[in-house]
Fold:
Amino acid sequence: MAQQEMKCPTCGGDKFRHKEGSTYRCAYCGGTVIGPEIRRAPAASATQEQTATRRSNKDKTTALILCLFLGGIGVHKFYLGQTAWGILYILFCWTQITFLIAFIEFIVLAATSSEEFDRKYNF
Ligand SMILES: [Zn+2]
Structure:
């Protein structure tokens, strides 16, 4: 047996049946023993799956802050990977229209759910 040494505190037996998590049942007296955890795979594989489906990792909060404070010069557009739009914002920021558009975008972005945001920008 490759398992590390574990002894039942009640009868000293060394055979156990795994119950769940780090809980084992003694094969001799049936007592419950806390041992090394075996199953923790589900949580790990779930996070792995999530990082695998996400190619980029843009953050909605960061985008919101950039949009609010630097939106008039299109910084949020550069952050979201829409470089062409960002350049347009810089070109037209003297008209101050971009500040108005950025403010509207801020509201739209704030109303966008995280899932929607991921679908749009973290594909
Ligand atoms: Zn026992």
